[in-house]
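Summary of Year 1 activities. Much of the first year was spent building the evaluation harness for sequence design. The harness presents a backbone, in tokenized form, and records the residue chosen at every position. We chose the following record to illustrate the format because it has been used consistently in internal testing since the harness was completed.
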């Protein structure tokens, strides 16, 4: 299925098509309150952004905006949490090094983290804009298959991609597995969530069944929602820029010519790419933004500067993992290729 990059979308779309904003890094920790609630440590390492109420449990009954005292996101009414796995480089000698993150295009100075988007309407329905519904308190969802190791296993997830960055503004081509050659400006991962809600459940056992993709086409093309999931939500997606430049010397890559990157859960194919989301916008802030024309500057939302975003952080809970140096094993003991 063909979809357009965000750069292309921004050029062809009306100014109210999507909200784009940076979130600095909150913490890198072995916690996963969505898939492994209450488990300390969780099986693999994650990079997390958003409100500082993030914890191992994340009780849905809690008031996340009320629990948080700050957020790493540009819009200071957004105390949601957004997280993904962490990328590692595997050297010829079998040791691993965590790949750092870097700020996205237009967000210089933001400490690592990621870029978050909320699509406000279908881009090609210029004459007939479809209003989208904001997520509700207690809402959460997941996208991807951590166990996937083949293209066939990820076909149900239409829009989980990688881009080999030739420069900071590169967005195409997008592929579904790790790039096979060194990328001059790093690797970008893009993770786009389903956009149709069943209208009843804020979560589901697999954190996916309460959401669905349009019956045909994509959110961007105005594809209709299935009858089982009739409520059209905004499209949420993340871009994460992994700064692989220090690992671009082919002499350090495996002798067999295979690519050397591996997710923190051991996947060296790239097909296990996945992401988690827990809603935490204050009051009706997200719906206000979705109802109003805005892109990066949203007059209906309170905004904080880069210094405030970077100042919000959280101490790691799992401190036994060495996440800064070369290590013999991935945190949690995952084995590359598994």
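For this record, the design step produced the sequence shown next.
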């Amino acid at each position: 299925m063909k979809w357009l990059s965000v750069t292309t979308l921004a050029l062809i779309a009306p100014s109210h098509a999507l909200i784009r904003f940076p979130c600095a890094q909150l913490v890198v920790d072995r916690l996963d309150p969505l898939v492994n609630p209450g488990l300390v440590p969780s099986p693999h390492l994650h990079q997390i952004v958003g409100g500082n109420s993030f914890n191992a449990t994340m009780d849905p009954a809690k008031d996340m905006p009320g629990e948080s005292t700050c957020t790493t996101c540009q819009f200071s009414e957004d105390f949601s949490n957004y997280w993904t796995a962490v990328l590692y480089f595997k050297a010829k000698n079998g040791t691993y090094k965590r790949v750092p993150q870097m700020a996205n295009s237009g967000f210089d100075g933001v400490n690592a983290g990621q870029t978050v988007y909320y699509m406000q309407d279908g881009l090609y329905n210029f004459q007939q804009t479809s209003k989208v519904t904001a997520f509700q308190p207690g809402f959460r969802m997941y996208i991807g298959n951590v166990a996937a190791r083949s293209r066939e296993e990820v076909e149900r997830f239409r829009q989980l991609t990688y881009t080999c960055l030739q420069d900071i503004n590169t967005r195409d081509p997008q592929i579904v597995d790790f790039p096979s050659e060194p990328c001059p400006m790093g690797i970008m991962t893009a993770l786009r969530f389903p956009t149709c809600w069943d209208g009843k459940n804020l979560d589901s056992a697999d954190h996916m069944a309460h959401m669905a993709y349009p019956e045909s086409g994509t959110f961007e093309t105005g594809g209709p929602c299935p009858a089982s999931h009739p409520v059209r939500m905004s499209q949420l997606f993340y871009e994460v820029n992994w700064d692989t430049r220090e690992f671009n010397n082919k002499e350090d890559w495996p002798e067999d010519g295979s690519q050397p990157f591996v997710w923190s859960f051991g996947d060296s194919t790239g097909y296990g790419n996945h992401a988690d989301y827990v809603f935490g916008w204050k009051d009706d802030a997200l719906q206000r933004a979705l109802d109003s024309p805005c892109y990066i500057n949203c007059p209906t939302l309170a905004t904080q500067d880069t210094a405030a975003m970077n100042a919000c952080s959280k101490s790691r809970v799992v401190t036994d993992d060495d996440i800064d140096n070369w290590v013999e094993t991935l945190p949690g003991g995952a084995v590359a290729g598994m």
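Residues 6-16, 123-128 have pLDDT under 50 and may be disordered. Quantitative recovery figures across the full test set are reported in Table 2.
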